[in-house]
Design brief:
The protein is an alpha+beta fold. The protein contains eight helices and six strands, in the order H-H-H-E-E-E-E-H-E-H-H-E-H-H.
């Protein structure tokens, strides 16, 4: 009996201890579950973000390059509504105009083009570059490399193809004997006559669109393209970037990362059928009502603001030597300011 009296308190204590342990385990399970949920929510939020790299498909940009006869025509194709471009860096809901500039830097068998967005004289973000390399001058074509800007696409993001034996119009133009190198005179709010801004669509719809447009691209993704170490020419926009970008970047600068943390969000997407409607009209109607928000204004409204006459489309900015003047895509001559302004536009102002 004495043994039983001794055993009962011990047994009760054990039961109490076991109960506490069970409760502790349950509490621990709840904490872990909440932690996992928080991680999942963060992951889901990240997957819901608008990534710049997912809205200009470089593999398909190569297909656009292939069909072009000149850098100017390439630029026009890049900016076709319903085409390869769905990039919106300033988050206004309209696809950014992509400008093209031929490298001033060139060597025998080496040529290049810079693809960039420009929101003002000192507001340039390079998006990608195209490098051409000929092993020997006897070849009609070239090896072609598309390199994504490190900020947008991450390190060593290349697509390559070998067109050495092919005769392509744009390759002939770039290797042709001439003194004038193409430099786009166009940029945000200063567009060519044929261009009209169009709306951004969901990246998933964009992906479906470009795959349907170019189902069999000739370019292959690689981080170590062949012969790339032989190419020594540099882009005139190398290193230029915007400090304030509202799209998610792969390798942002500290300034870009800090800005994005305080301005997270997505551009206002529209259904694919509405993307190519006149942006000066409200979405889904033809009433001529201006849309709400910071969308591009019509040429007429820009002219009124600038004090331009009825025949002045506001192209260029006469009197300011840092801005290109009026001109058609095939019109600009060589860049007389080569080497000037390098490093400008980094983190200045808002796109």
């Amino acid at each position: 009996m004495s043994i039983l009296k001794t055993f009962l308190p011990v047994l009760a204590a054990g039961v109490i201890f076991a109960g506490c342990n069970t409760e502790g385990t349950q509490q621990a399970g709840i904490v872990n579950e909440n932690a996992n949920t928080a991680v999942m929510d963060e992951t889901m939020a990240d997957s819901d973000e608008y990534w710049a790299k997912d809205n200009l498909d470089l593999e398909r940009v190569g297909a656009v390059f292939e069909r072009s006869e000149s850098p100017a025509e390439f630029e026009r194709y890049l900016n076709e509504p319903g085409g390869v471009n769905n990039l919106d860096l300033n988050g206004d809901g309209y696809v950014d105009y992509i400008s093209v500039r031929e490298f001033d830097d060139r060597e025998d068998g080496q040529r290049g083009l810079s693809l960039f967005t420009r929101f003002g004289p000192d507001l340039i973000q390079e998006v990608a570059s195209i490098l051409l390399y000929r092993d020997e001058p006897r070849y009609p074509g070239a090896r072609v490399y598309l390199r994504g800007d490190d900020r947008i696409y991450g390190d060593n993001h290349y697509y390559e193809t070998n067109w050495l034996d092919r005769t392509l119009g744009v390759v002939n133009a770039l290797f042709g004997d001439r003194n004038d190198y193409y430099r786009s005179p166009y940029y945000y709010d200063n567009y060519p006559d044929y261009y009209e801004p169009y709306r951004v669509i969901e990246p998933a719809y964009y992906r479906t669109r470009v795959v349907e447009l170019y189902p069999d691209p000739a370019f292959v993704y690689t981080t170590t393209p062949q012969y790339i170490d032989r190419i020594r020419i540099k882009s005139p926009n190398n290193g230029l970037h915007l400090g304030q970008i509202k799209a998610r970047l792969m390798k942002p600068t500290d300034e870009q990362a800090a800005f994005y943390r305080n301005n997270r969000g997505r551009p206002p997407f529209v259904p694919p059928g509405q993307a190519m409607q006149n942006p000066n009209r409200g979405p889904g109607n033809n009433s001529g009502v201006e849309p709400q928000g910071p969308g591009p204004k019509s040429d007429r409204d820009r002219d009124v603001q600038r004090g331009a006459g009825p025949d002045d489309k506001g192209r260029g900015n006469p009197g300011n030597g840092n801005e290109p003047g009026e001109g058609k895509p095939d019109g600009p001559g060589p860049d007389k300011n080569q080497g000037k302004g390098q490093g400008q536009g980094q983190g200045k102002g808002r796109p």
